[in-house]
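Give me the fold.
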Amino acid sequence: MMKYTATMRRLLLCSGLLLSLLTLAACEQEKQETIPEASTPVSSAPASAPVLADLSHAAILGNSYVDGFVTYDVLPETDCFYRIGLNVRTVFTKSMLNHDIPVIDELANGKTYDKVFLIFGENELGWPNTQAFCDGYGEIIDAVRERQPEATVYIQSILPVSAEVSAQNIDNTNNQQILKFNEMLKDIAKDKNAVYLDVASVMTDSDGNLPNEAATDGIHPGSKYYQKWADYLKENTVPSNGE
């Protein structure tokens, strides 16, 4: 039997310790390679609320669509001037209910507006002479600027009607005709340096109609859709930098 000297025993002991240390080091290295590195959390700031226009110095002028803003009180800070059945001609001759001046002259009330929103066209869809409509709209814009020279003039698109109303086509009230008139409104806005607002974009379903649930008569929206309309105006009439 081989006898180990004290020196040999010390060497064997040191070798064993060294082997153990190397094994532990290898295991630790393998563990570090197999454990995925935790990703650094990315802090994200909360999304900021959209900037909304102040409409407390604005006025809306037009036909029966304006009545909904009053009825549903979705823009309580905005002045509304209108008459049911009003068109681009009668705005110069017809008055509001219980008033005694033409609707257009309601703008000459001593206040200074920074925005004037116009809504005309639904009552003119059956006019055979579309140029008369365009000319009349241009005259309204001129009249607004005479009474409110500091105001930005906004032309709002004509809203779509329901599929049923469009199919009935009373007085040429159908969505194809409305699209045609809205293209004319874009041209008027360009020619008269006004701003065109595509309000119809938030009132149209996938088939190009006013959604069935939007209006009981298929034409004039209810409170939910007037709120959409009001939100659209606030979100899309914020002055850009430098204005």
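Strands lie at 58-62, 79-82, 115-119, 152-156, 195-197.
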